[in-house]
């Protein structure tokens, strides 16, 4: 630990507790130390490649009825390991990530086309217009028809 170093002991001995400059220096040192600790992350391994590959699969095939098993098989991982690795790498579950991609595409289509909500649901990988509407409401806060009129 850093506090066991001789420099730290000398600095403590030199400070009489009344020196504001010492306190400021100590705070700066501590902040710098804490900010640089995580800089040396381990090099990307095969799990990181699997996450990148799974994101590419989701982006390319979001309109298809993808399952976790399909995506995990594409990147050669078990479903449970895939979920853990993906969540660690991306910060959200594969299902949420895929739903977010689909909703973002639905938003683009609602803003730029005159397609019906049913047609947009088909193009974005939702099972029905109702499934799109429910997911859209959860994520965006309004129904697709309201979003289109905004």
UniProtKB/TrEMBL annotation:
Pfam families: HTH_18
Presence of keyword Electron transport: no
Highest taxon above the source species: Bacteria
Domain HTH araC/xylS-type intervals: 52-150
Keywords, sorted A to Z: DNA-binding, Transcription, Transcription regulation
SMART domains linked: HTH_ARAC
PANTHER family registered for this protein in UniProt: HTH-TYPE TRANSCRIPTIONAL ACTIVATOR RHAS-RELATED
Name listed for the protein in its UniProt record: Helix-turn-helix domain-containing protein
Species of provenance: Nocardia suismassiliense
Lineage of producing organism: Bacteria, Bacillati, Actinomycetota, Actinomycetes, Mycobacteriales
């Amino acid at each position: 630990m850093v506090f066991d170093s001789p420099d730290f002991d000398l600095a403590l001995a030199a400070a009489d507790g009344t020196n504001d400059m010492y306190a400021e220096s100590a705070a700066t040192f501590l902040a710098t130390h804490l900010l640089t600790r995580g800089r040396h992350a381990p090099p990307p391994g095969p799990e990181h490649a699997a996450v990148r590959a799974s994101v590419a699969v989701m982006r390319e095939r979001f309109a298809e009825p993808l399952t976790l098993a399909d995506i995990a098989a594409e990147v050669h991982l078990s479903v449970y390991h895939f979920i853990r690795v993906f969540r660690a790498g991306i910060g959200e579950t594969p299902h949420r990530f895929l739903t977010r991609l689909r909703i973002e595409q639905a938003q683009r289509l609602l803003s730029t086309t005159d397609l019906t909500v049913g047609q947009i649901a088909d193009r974005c990988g939702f099972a029905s217009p109702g499934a799109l509407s429910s997911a859209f409401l959860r994520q965006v806060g309004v129904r697709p028809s309201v979003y289109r009129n905004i």
